[in-house]
Amino acid sequence: MGMATKNPRLQILLEKPLYAAVAALADEEGVSMSTKARDLIREALEHLEDVALSEVVDIRARKPAKLLAMAEMRRRLGA
Fold first, then answer.
1. Each residue of 33-65: pLDDT tens digit?
2. φ and ψ of 57, to 5 deg
3. Which of 48, 19, 51, 50 is nearest to 36 (CA)?
4. Torsion angle, CA of 35/41/46/50, rounded to 10 degrees?
5. Domain assignment present for 3
6. CA distance 30 to 17
7. Distance between CA atoms of 50 and 44, rounded to whole angstroms?
8. Measured between alpha carbons, how far is 25 from 78 in angstroms, rounded to an integer?
9. Is residue 43 part of a domain?
10. CA pair distance 17, 14, nearest whole angstrom
11. What is the pLDDT of residue 64?
């Protein structure tokens, strides 16, 4: 009997080369294809987040914020 899980499931269709690549990676790491696919999706989402944050940094670098004196910073932080 399989182990029950409360995590949502996702069923996907893969082209044969993509299926083979995921299978090979899973085999190399000794994990299931489901685990490897989940990890790859997580890494892709983290990468997309990094790209989005990088764009924010680029925008801010082009338009630097007004510098504050230390006394003003303390006042604003209530320190």
1. 999 999 999 999 999 999 999 988 888 788 877
2. -60, -45
3. 19
4. 150
5. no
6. 20
7. 10
8. 52
9. yes
10. 8
11. 74
